[in-house]
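Researcher: Please generate the 3D structure of the following complex. Treat every line as part of one assembly.
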Amino acid sequence: MTPPDPRAARSREAVLVAARELLLRHGPAAVTHQRVAEQAGVGRATVYRHWARAELLLLDVMAGADLPFFREPRSPVRPWLHAQLRLLAADLAQPEVRAVALTLMHGALWDTHLAEQRDLFVATLTDRLGAALALAAGTGEAAGLPGADEAAALVAGAVLYRTAMQNGTVSDAFLTRLIDGLATWRAG
Amino acid sequence: MTPPDPRAARSREAVLVAARELLLRHGPAAVTHQRVAEQAGVGRATVYRHWARAELLLLDVMAGADLPFFREPRSPVRPWLHAQLRLLAADLAQPEVRAVALTLMHGALWDTHLAEQRDLFVATLTDRLGAALALAAGTGEAAGLPGADEAAALVAGAVLYRTAMQNGTVSDAFLTRLIDGLATWRAG
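Model: Done. Output below.
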């Protein structure tokens, strides 16, 4: 993945900066070869040379960004978790984000770079969810919690399947059921 | 996907029959271009012509087979569901089956044939799980159940994420938690 010369490295970095700006300002759908090339002031061929498909570029941009998911848990944890899962569902409702998630899952089977990115994403989600659940356990808000990795599989897996496999909408009742299944909750 | 001439159609069918036999006798890892070609009595190039990658052949074989998952629910439903999810987890623990599932999820974004197969798989799982949950509701074994599509997302999504994203083992405690989160259960 390392470009062979400094000029290529500079153009690659310029493209990443431009893509990150487009992502933050206009959302994932804006991260196309055309718009990124314009924003970076490079030819479209340059973008294609580094990223053959738009979702691979978007993936690298999202991997470099500090994703806001499940960050800074607050007490009470239960409504905070509901809001976080709502954000995750809204993001996965966007076709571009879904494409990134599925490219990561699928491509990781053969591509070690993608496997590392997947493992990093999985670890980040697990750590953050684990911190939130530890907070809930510490205040006595939740009891009987699973380990952080199992908790991540329960909540993220369900939202991912609902959006990416079923193309379904994620209702509040669905999220409530998901969270209630995770632990015995008391008013926080 | 339709072969252009009767001879190609015959060789395609012979390959599918051979692949199905290998799958049933020796499991998904046996469905390789080499072994399928030998079993079908055709050249390896013939198999490659119809299916460029082994997991696409395996996918077509599995799509044609009547998958045993969640079929014929029995009362009490709770232990039956546990056993079914154990089978699903064991299958997804095999790299070839995981590759098929992820190829289906990912490829369906661009390929209408794969999207149809994904939708068929999703519908089958939903229908069968729905029948099992209806049985549990009818006997009074379970109350407060979600709709069949949400139930499928809750259980299949969690098992898929645990195996395909986390490369994790699916413990009995994990499955019990999953099932307990689905409804209020009484001894059946």
